[in-house]
Amino acid sequence: MKSLSLILRIVAILAACAAAALFFVSKGKLAEQQTQLEQARKETQTIQAELETANSSIATISTQLASERKALAETKEKFESSRSQVYTAKQEVSRTQQQLRQAKATISSLESQATQLRSDLVKTEKTLAISSKESELAQLNERVEELTKVNDSLKQDLLSAEALAQSKKSSSADANRRSEQLGSGGYQSTFKASTTPAAQAASIGSETSVAAISSRDGIIVLDDAQKIGLTVGAEVTLIQGLTALGKIQVTKVTEQLAVANILPGTRLKLAVGDSVKILF
Questions:
Q1: What pTM was estimated for this model as a whole?
Q2: What Å distances lie between residue 55 and 46, 48, 157, 242, CA to CA?
Q3: pLDDT (tens digit, 9 = 90+) per residue, 210-229?
Q4: Is residue 280 part of a domain?
Q5: Which CATH number covers residue 217?
Q6: Which of 76, 89, 162, 188 is the most exposed place for a label (fewest CB within 10 A)?
Q7: Residue 237 and residue 44: Cα distance in Å, rounded?
Q8: What share of the chain is helix, strand, coil (3-state, %, to 5)?
Q9: CA distances from 3 to 17, 69, 134, 227 (A)
Q10: Which residue range forms the structural domain that includes residue 254?
Q11: What's the total number of domains in the chain?
């Protein structure tokens, strides 16, 4: 009986020791579990904060995505509008090109017509020029004949005038000699010189010089307008020596110069500074 109670006591002591050991072990594990639980709570809070941040970022991204979708839709509408405008512009360009081709064809036709008209005009001008030249040539030939006759007449008039002047000088000298001879012999002469003026031929003006001349334009300018006595509208003949050069018609007279047109049929072979006389 004693051994049984001793065994029971030993078993009870061992059980108590085991219980104590189990208590301490379980107490350590519980503390460890509590520590882990606290860490898990902290991690959960951190994860929740991160999750809230992620949710906020997702909301922001969703807002941006909606804005970008809206902008994309607007861009798409603008692109469609631009595409429509480009299509319209292409149609306008095609229509303009067609009009341009038509205009070029019209211009080409007009140019060909203008070339033909220009050719016809040149032919007409040549025909008119030939007709005009023939008419002018006939007029010039008639004028040359008239001027030749006038030149011959002027030469005769000049020769007559010079002969008359020489005759007057000779008659005056003879009369003076006879008067002197008769006076020395005591005889008084009853001869009286005729006071009837001789017939005047052409009147020759003072000598002048050529200030300017343009045979192409048919204009001549003479110096000393007042001295030579020219008037506007007068038709006079230029002479050099005893040769008639041709006729001119005065168009303008100033204090120093006289401007005149060279009449048709007259060819003046004069240069600036040449001396001429005026035959009125």
A1: 0.32
A2: 14, 10, 136, 131
A3: 988 888 888 899 987 777 78
A4: yes
A5: 2.40.10.340
A6: 188
A7: 137
A8: 65, 15, 20
A9: 21, 93, 183, 193
A10: 202-280
A11: 1
